[in-house]
Amino acid sequence: MADQGMLEQHVLENDEPLLIAESLSKSYGRIAACRDVSFALYPGEVLAIVGESGSGKSTLLQLLSGQLAASGGHVSYRMRDGVTRDLATLGEAERRFLFRTDWGFVHQDPAHGLRMAVSAGANVGERLMAVGWNHYGRIRDTASDWLTRVEIDFARIDDAPRTYSGGMRQRLQIARNLVTEPRLVFMDEPTGGLDVSVQARLLDLLRSLVAELHLAVIIVTHDLAVARLLSHRVMVMKGGRVIETGLTDQVLDDPREPYTQLLVSSILPP
Amino acid sequence: MNAPAYNFAYLDEQTKRMIRRAILKAIAIPGYQVPFASREMPMPYGWGTGGVQVTAAILGPDDVLKVIDQGSDDTTNAISIRKFFAKTAGVATTTATEDATVIQTRHRIPETALSENQVLVYQVPIPEPLRFLEPRETETRRMHALAEYGLMHVKLYEDIARFGHIATAYAYPVKVNARYVMDPSPTPKFDNPKMDNCPALQLFGAGREKRIYAIPPYTKVVSLDFEDHPFEPYRFNAPCALCGAENSYLDEIVTDDKGGRMFVCSDTDYCEGRQAAGHHGSLSAAPYKEKAQGGSNG
């Protein structure tokens, strides 16, 4: 077991939120895509945002990750130096640096998150090279390490992802994001478009990586099974508002809002 | 009808001023690609329209112009451009590197060391070093602005992963003045070290892409590499067959259809100068020996 001092430090760090959203809203003209969303995310916590298409999930994810400017409200993030800063006050260089070091973003379509024409090794190594790694051997070793961790055969390291299957591409995208040891990963429907057995394997992998690396994750999904398997907490969205939030088991087993009840009851029993 | 009267060096004065402003800006920010309003020139894109515009903008009546194409003074492109300026500007032209004040080049830097009173003008087809990795211009500009050059190493990584060494042999990316990553135009990487700390001003013109960039005299130019795969200039391992030079960049010339080949200096002026000074190579005196020599090389 870890000694007492380290444990205390750990507890202290986990005590403060990593990301705070305060009454976030975004409107496109008269259409409000996202209204008054507030929450705090703690280190190591997995938060699922569920809801049907058009409920504002993806907009919210883009607001949280600083890719979209909010019409109202703030997002603050506790940087690696321990200082919590409003994302809107970060310069573009800082934001992009944050995005490729302390954050990850897993797209639904791996083609958006990967460079399809360059090898898997270079895909994983790109972030390292972007933060100044300048030793081919070390970059390659780290890349092969990560490929092994996401269960991709080392023999495929020099193949371009366009020769990969859908499930492998998604795992490669995850490796590419995790190589800089981010503390927060955004995921937008990471299992969308994969068949059920591949989904199960991917979820399994994600779950073990999240636990192992003590990752905080914000995952957007319309698949309640994914939310149940991965997340600690669930936020249910409808019409741009958060209508229900709570521990995953609590929300999914005992939904209070009629819409959540509908959502939960629409899943076929296993 | 009267023959059309051209302004000195073909371009009108306002256009030259516009190009000179771009050049000044490029010199002020070494390696930065300055957009300019590239003009239609009386030659097709890809034949040096960018270089010609830069040359036209900096040329004065007292300048002596040299034009080289792949190191050679006597290929079509070089002769055409030299004649173009002889006709439209009436400037003196030369093939001797040391006599020239302005040297327009396509794909080579002369072997003879350049001096402070010379300007080297490069013809550039694609100025953006990140282009083949990142197709979006908006994104590459942002990457330059924020000095995000990890992607450039991705290209070198790919080379090593595929070929075991950095196989990029020309247009080898450089970092200028410890800030901007720049494409040195498709010069062989053999020429990269010559750009570093060069006494001559180096100007780059891309006509189709409408960009001008520059390396001021005595500027630090570093070829990108990995610690465990350092930059190495490449040269065929042979002396020049005509002048015996051991340290010049060589062209490979196929001499028959049985695998015969000879290696000669790509810089014709340098090679001729050495031959005039009495140097000779294996094939210079007796061309009939070519076959035997070719066989042993092949």
Describe this structure as you would to a colleague:
Chain B: Catalyzes the breakage of the C-P bond in alpha-D-ribose 1-methylphosphonate 5-phosphate (PRPn) forming alpha-D-ribose. The complex is a heterodimer of chains A (270) and B (298). With 270 residues, chain A is an alpha/beta fold. Chain A has a domain at 116-181. Chain A contains 11 helices and 10 strands. Chain A has helices at residues 4-15, 57-64, 92-101, 110-113, 120-130, 136-149, 166-178, 196-213, 224-230, 248-253, 258-265; strands at residues 19-28, 31-41, 46-50, 72-78, 84-86, 103-106, 184-188, 216-221, 233-238, 241-247. In chain A, the strands form 2 sheets. Chain A has a 6-stranded mixed sheet, with helices on both faces. A 4-stranded antiparallel sheet of chain A has the order 2-1-4-5, with helices on one face. In chain A, α5 (120-130) packs across α6 (136-149), α5 packs parallel to α7 (166-178) and α6 packs across α7. Chain B has 298 residues and is of the alpha/beta class. Chain B folds into 2 domains: 13-223, Rossmann fold; 250-297, no CATH class. Chain B has helices spanning 13-28, 49-58, 76-88, 137-145, 150-163, 192-195, 268-276, 290-297; strands spanning 34-35, 64-69, 92-93, 102-106, 119-123, 174-176, 180-182, 201-206, 211-215, 221-223, 250-254, 261-265. In chain B, the strands form 3 sheets. Chain B has a 7-stranded mixed sheet with strand order 1-9-8-5-4-2-3. Chain B has a 3-stranded antiparallel sheet with strand order 7-6-10. In chain B, α1 crosses α2. The A-B interface holds A 92-93, 96, 115, 118-119, 121-122, 125-131, 134-137, 139-140, 157-158 and B 133, 142, 146, 148, 150-151, 153-154, 157-158, 160-162, 226-229.
Secondary structure topology:
The complex is a heterodimer of chains A (270) and B (298).
Chain A (H helix, E strand, L loop, with lengths): L3 H12 L3 E10 L2 E11 L4 E5 L6 H8 L7 E7 L5 E3 L5 H10 L1 E4 L3 H4 L6 H11 L5 H14 L16 H13 L5 E5 L7 H18 L2 E6 L2 H7 L2 E6 L2 E7 H6 L4 H8 L5
Parallel strand pairs in A: 3-8, 3-9, 6-7, 7-8
Antiparallel strand pairs in A: 1-2, 1-4, 4-5, 9-10
Helix pairs in contact in A: 5-6, 5-7, 6-7
Chain B lengths: L12 H16 L5 E2 L13 H10 L5 E6 L6 H13 L3 E2 L8 E5 L12 E5 L13 H9 L4 H14 L10 E3 L3 E3 L9 H4 L5 E6 L4 E5 L5 E3 L26 E5 L6 E5 L2 H9 L13 H8 L1
Parallel strand pairs in B: 2-3, 2-4, 4-5, 5-8
Antiparallel strand pairs in B: 1-9, 6-7, 6-10, 8-9, 11-12
Helix pairs in contact in B: 1-2
